[in-house]
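Lab notebook: predicted structure, single chain.

Context: the supervisor wants predicted structures on file for every construct in the current expression panel, including those that have not yet been purified. This is the next one on the list. No modifications to the sequence; it matches the entry in the shared construct table.
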Amino acid sequence: MAQLTDDCFAFSGPLLPLTDMERLIGERVAPVDGVERVPLRLARGRVTADDVIAPVALPPFDNSAVDGYAVRHADLSAEGDTKLAVAGRLMAGAQSDVAIRPGEAIRIFTGAAMPAGADTVFMQEDVTVDGDTVAVPKGLKRGANSRFAGEDLPAGNVALPAGTVLDAQHVALAAAIGLTELDVRRRLRVAIFSTGDEVVEPGGLRHGAAIYDANRFLLAALLERLGAEVTDLGILSDDPDGLARALKNSSAGHDLVVTSGGVSTGEADHVRGAVEAIGSLVFWRIAIKPGRPVAMGVIRGASHNESAAFVGLPGNPVAVFVTFVRVVKPLLRRLSGALPQTLHPLPVRVAFAYKKKKDRREYVRVSLRRGVDGELEAVKHPQDGAGILTSLTETDGLLEFAEDVTSVAPGDRVGFLSYADLMN
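Prediction complete. Output recorded below exactly as produced.
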């Protein structure tokens, strides 16, 4: 489980800016212990535990990038065509002990090892073959159409840094240097539950003032997409003692506990008090909209050696989504040993006017369309309440308004974050 100190997220201000939150996580939260070796076919989505060093060069030998003729560049005329004798033939995979001599060319195919002495390859469609000779044109640069040993990755270099979240391309690189297994961090173990007397299980009996619980399903899907092992603890009622017991029990065997609902200041919002009764709630408001009431802290189990990070999210599902991708995800990456992720909002033209308060980061759900001039522009969803789930299903991503922005007008450019980028 996560070994955390009570002040690991410590912040003394009333509203925590997102940049300060990310800095505190990076400085004061340590990755969980535990490393395991997995085969390449099971490695996607896992986090490398150590630097992966290339045991061989990539490519391991000089080879041709095309079907054509290997030559010595020193033999080529700068004034016109050069006629060379075709002295051999090399296929991909064939063991080559051929050495090219002055005035010769070797017929070669893509991937075949370059003959000793050759440094340049002419594509077959650029030459003229006449019996046992080939005429090659002037102007080709030394090394053209050739792939040299180690140009992709020299032997002994870092192929994959520690903290890499492995995707298909990383697994392919590991295979290309001959590896069959990788050492990765163990998966994070995360417990989730929803709170509220008004929340019921989907498919269950719903009285007139109740709503079906969507938040646990949203959180489970997001967590599993990021590689965590999820324990679903269901729905807890608004009972302070019951919440405290559930939190205390959930800290055992889990690295992180994530809840939704009950972190605001209402009379029925008991999560904050429950956390403070069994641990430390070190901040509970972040300068973000939607989702300002976000609690983060540490909860302790029955044993003094057991503790888990805690995040309490708001109850509205859109606020849950936004705060998860911008608050929980950086914490997950740090706990899992992954390198920090830098989001790069792409500037798009805004097709609406908007005003916001200063000193908070704000996210607006938008769809992308082509303007009359063909340029991409963002259109705000007509309903922007934090409980409007269709505002997530009917849009393409979020516009990110920085803390110092107070208004935008049609035609302004604002950073756009796609849902795919936010969730991966």
